Amino acid sequence: MKRVYEFEPNKKAELTKLLEADPYVEGSFARIGYKVKEGGVLGEDKSKNYLYISAGDDFIKKADETLKLLVTIVKGEVEKRILEKIAAEEESAEAGLGSLFG
Question: How far is residue 95 CA from its own chain's centroid?
Fold first, then answer.
């Protein structure tokens, strides 16, 4: 399951602290992996930042609950555009590595 959250830039430090807590614990955000992107970089609202997580349903439910005071779940067209941009970015990175080791 993939989830996109939106948050205010002034909450980035607090959110990062939460995301990076206990990096070696099974099921931590650091072990699952996440991406934080500025809205302007994604071609979205420049006054927002976005958090992307790809994980199992149980982890996403846990994330929704843990992060609810700092973020808002993104839905609809904005979510679709962000997911497409992140997928394209990941494909581009994989293609680049393939050319290095291919």
Answer: 21
Question: Which 3 state secondary structure label does DSSP give 96?
Answer: helix
Mean pLDDT of 34-52: 96
Indicate the average pLDDT of the chain.
91
Confidence of residue 90 (pLDDT cuts 50, 70, 90): confident
Burial level of 101, CB count in 10 A (0-12/13-18/19+)? exposed
> Has residue 93 got a pLDDT over 90?
no
Q: For the chain, give every domain's residue range.
A: 2-101
Under CATH, which architecture does the 2-101 domain have?
2-Layer Sandwich (3.30)
- Map tokens 């393939």 to a residue: 98
One-letter amino acid of 88: A
Tell me the H-state helices in 26-75.
29-32, 57-67
DSSP 40: T
